[in-house]
Amino acid sequence: MSDDDPTFIPPPLPILSSQQQADYDSLLIDLNLKQAPVQSQSSQPPSKKSRANSSRYSSSRSAWDRTFSSAKFARRGVNPHLQLVETMMRGAIVRWGAVRQEDEDSDPLPADEVKLREQQVKDFDVIIKNLRDMAPVLKYMYLDSATCTAWEILIKKDCVQTRANDTSKLKTKHEYFLPDDRKDVLFPALRNNTVKTDRDLGHPMLRYLLLPPHMRMHLPPLEFRQPAPDTPMPTLSYVTIDHPFAADLAPASSAEAQKIIDGIAANTLVLTVDDFPSAFWEEGSYDPEDEAKGLFKGYMVPRVLRHTWTGPESAMVEPSKKRKKGIRRDCNANLHKQYVVTPEMAGNALCQVRTMLSNDNWSESDGDFDYEQLFNSVVAILRPDPATPAGVRAWAKETLQWLQDQTFGSYKPEEDDEEESRPALASVVTRIFKQRAT
Fold first, then answer.
1. CB pairs under 8 A, 24+ apart, for 188-191?
2. Where is the region Disordered (predicted)?
3. pLDDT tens digits for 294-322?
4. Which residues pair with 296 in a beta bridge?
5. What distances in angstroms separate CA 25 from CA 28, 44, 136, 140, one per listed residue?
6. What would the pLDDT profile of 7-54 be if each residue is shown by its tens digit?
7. Contact indicator for 88, 124 with CB cutoff of 8 Å
C-alpha cells in the first residue's frame, strides 16, 4: 500500500457520553489545548468529596488524576523501565486501529522486534484496564490524533517521577538492611542524605548482601554488630583512596576468597545480572545445586513490597501481626485497588532492593549490571509459559504465594471498596447483589 493510497480509512470516532465528553474537555483544558469556561474557578467540574481510601480511578476524582494514576501504577506494577510513549502508541495502533496509513506495518519484522511489540501491547492492556471509565475518553483522543495533537502531548507526560520518588524514599530506610532491627547494627552507619557513596562493595556489611551467594559463601560469616571498642577499624577514607577496601577485609580463608578480596580491593570485581545478589535469597538457604531454593525470599524483598504497596510504616511488620485493622486507607494498594502480588510487582521490588545496596540511584544499568534485564528475568521465571518444566512452574506459584502472604497476609478489601465506581443503587438492588453472590 503506497503512502497516498486513497483506500486507507481510519477507524471512526466513538460516541462519548455526556460525562465522557466532560472528562475529555477537562483533559484538553489541563493540556492547555482548550480554554476553561469563563465562570469556572477550576478546570475540573465540581464533584462529590472522595473518601480518604477512594480509588485513584474513582469518578469523584478529576479526569487528570484518573488518567495519570494509571501511569503511576505502570511504574510500580507494570514495568519500572517502561517506555511509556512507545507502549501507548503501539498498543493503541493494535487495539484501536491505525489513524495514519504510515502506522500500518507492511514489511516483515525481526523476531526480537515482534516480541518487543507483543510485550508493549500486553503492557498497554494493563494500563488501559486500570484507566477504567477513562479508557473510552483516551480512545477517542487517540482516534482524533490525526487532526488533534492532544494524544501525543498526553502520552509524553510520563510519570517517571513516581519511580524516582520510590527510590529516594527507600534509600533512607537503613533498617531494611538488618535482619532484626531491634538488635542488629549496621556499621559503619550510612549517611542519611542524597549521596550514596558509602554503600556498594565499599561497605563491609552491605557488600555481603550485594555479592552473589556463590562468592559470599567463601567469605567469613556476616554479623550485623558493632565491633568491640578495641578492634582496629578502617576510616571512611576508603571511598577515595586507590585501594579502598583492603584494610577492612577479613583475612582470606581460601584461594577463592583471596581472589574475591583482591578484586574488591583493586575495584576490579565485576557484578552482572547473570548472578543475582545474595540479598535476593533467604539467609542461609542458598544451594548451588538448587539455586531456586530460597530465591526471592530474602528479608528485604517483602519489606520493599510492603513499603511500596501497604505503606512505609508497615514495612518492618509481618502481615500476620498487623492485618487485624487492615491496611492504611491511603496506601497504594487501596488507591490502585491492587491486592495481589504480580511478577511485575516483584520485579520492581527486586530492582529497588539492588538499587538500595548500590552507590548509584535508579538507572537502567549500574556498571555492568543491567536492571532492565533483571526485571525481565524475574518476570519470566515467576510467570513461566506452559513449556517450562513443571518443577519451575510449581516453584514460581509457591514463591508468588509466599510474597503475597508476606505483603498482604490474609487481608481482603472491604466489599464496598468499589462502590464509588458505580452509580448509587436502590437498597433492594444492593441486597440482591449480596444475596446472589453466594
1. 188/233, 188/236
2. 35-58
3. 999 999 999 999 999 999 999 999 886 55
4. none
5. 5, 9, 13, 12
6. 778 889 989 999 999 999 999 999 999 888 865 544 444 444 445 455
7. yes
